[in-house]
Amino acid sequence: MPLSLKPLSVLDFFLIDTQEHLPLSFSPLIQQSLQLCYTYLFTSQGREDIFETFALQCCKLIKVIVMCDKYKPPREIKDTTPQEVLKAHQAKMAFFTPAVLSEIIHQLVLNYFPLTSEDLEIWDSDPESVVNEEAGESWRFNLRACTEVLYLSLLNEFRSTVTPVVTEMIKLVQGSPPSDEMNVVLQKDAVYNACGLASYHLFDEVDFDQWFVNQLVNELNNSSPRSIDDVDFNLDDFLQYLDETFGSLFHLLKCSQDCDTKMHILNVLSMVIQCIGNKVRPFASSLSLYLPELWQESGNHNMLQCTVVSTVTHLVKGLGVLSQSLYSFLLPLIHISTDITQPSHVYLLEDGLDLWHNVLMNASRITPELLHLFVNLQALLDFGSENLRICFAIIESYVLLDEKEFLQSVSAPVVNSCLSMLGNIKTEGGIILSKVVETVIKVSPLRGTELFAQVLLKIFHMILEVEEYTPLLVIYLCIVGEVILHNYPAFVQIVESVAQQLNKQMDCMTRLERRKLTVLALMTLLPLNANCLVLLGGGTEDEDPNEECTEEYKRRRQLCLTDPVHCCPLWRFVRDKLHECHAIYGQDTFKELMDCVDSAVTTQLGSFINH
């Protein structure tokens, strides 16, 4: 620090402190203080002598003067308005002329916003610290943050004057040709930063959509490493480096002693596993030997344990059905992570549930150890939490994996949870829960209907009581449809009371698959010689082509292929049921019933079943 500037630095501290605690007493010094700061910050001669600490103090002083409420008179000036406030406001406005404001904004953006060589070195060596840099009061201690806060303060206070200046700078950048010169790139980055900070104020001035499409997209496609790294990942190109990458990361992981370092390496390893998918299989044995050891070493370092669980989850996805060979490590890991009696569950629960779900999805058969884990899930259901979505997804995976063993062993707590939650949780939660019940009835129509009888009764009552069409009602009706289609003798009396509701509210079903299910269900009722209603619909719904090919995907596909909704032609089913009705009711009764149907509907029905 030059000796001549030391007194000024101390003076700046004194001025800021005085202004913040005695703003009106400070008002006679407003113009002189602003001029002092302007000279050293924004003139070529002043910048030659200034140093960072003094520059920071000058920026802070300008900022606190600009934003001081004591220097802002009321909109309607009255005789009672203090003269000190008016004089302070006049002094501030006299200094900030349009020319001065324009120069300050240009200097801030072009001289203080661009990244320095030190900034670029930090980006290279520790980018996380730059990205994670905390805001809040950092402007009081960091020059870059302080210049950005000063820029926004001037924009807020003098918007009509500052906005055109910023807009003009943006237009100049928009019209400039692409360049790989670092100085040009840094200047452009500074203007982009200014635009980003002020975006809230610039929506009426800048067409951001056109700017993005016509220029920014092209700049992002610039492959020059000086501008931006290539973020596109091509697995085929990466495979030649896979052995070396895994070997180096694994060696580095084993050599590291610091838990935070291990955590960062694991995050990178996890990302690589996520990108390469099943190509991780050749490296699974070494990972499966080391990860249990690392888990034991992690001790009370909860964040490292979270990273281990997350990495193992990606490993399970990559291994698929082969992950069953790791059950000796996976299942105890899931048990510890999802046990709410363990203090560590606060950190591990979410990742542990995700791991549990992926293990089930990639399992080919159920085991006693997998079933034993359900004790933890029962506690979570009783406790109630924000993780209900994945909890019910886990239950559904159990049902699809082995419905007989699962329903025989642990159906009671699931039924109790359904009974306690139905009608008492939000619509989204009700949909998730009801889809589990629907899956149970699909995979086990007889046993599932028997075990979930109380749940079905509650659903039937809720259908009768509902007064508006909702997605939840659609699923309730489809559950009824599954019961009618697969197990109607036991529920015919209840179904008859619901049939009218099915007829009235079928139009609220938008998915063709669900409309067809309702038709199949009600056509099944026709031969029962009961007063049921006939509905017509049709169509099937395509499966999701983007679903991952896990073991559970195969189970869902097999369930779909055996589902009458997908494997039974609707026109043939309706025709056969009508013939069955004709045989059961007799010619006269059948004709009498058909005469009650609208002639247009009868014509369409004839065309449909004889196409």
From TrEMBL:
GO biological process per UniProt: protein import into nucleus
Xref: Pfam families = TPR_IPO11
Q: Which GO terms describe its cellular component?
A: cytosol; nuclear envelope
**InterPro entries named among the record's database cross-references:** ARM-like, ARM-type_fold, TPR_IPO7/11-like
Q: Where is the Importin-7/11-like TPR repeats domain?
A: 307-531, 542-609
Q: Which PANTHER family match?
A: IMPORTIN-11, IMPORTIN-7, 8, 11
Put simply, this protein is called: Importin-11
Q: What taxonomic ancestry is recorded? A: Eukaryota, Metazoa, Cnidaria, Anthozoa, Hexacorallia
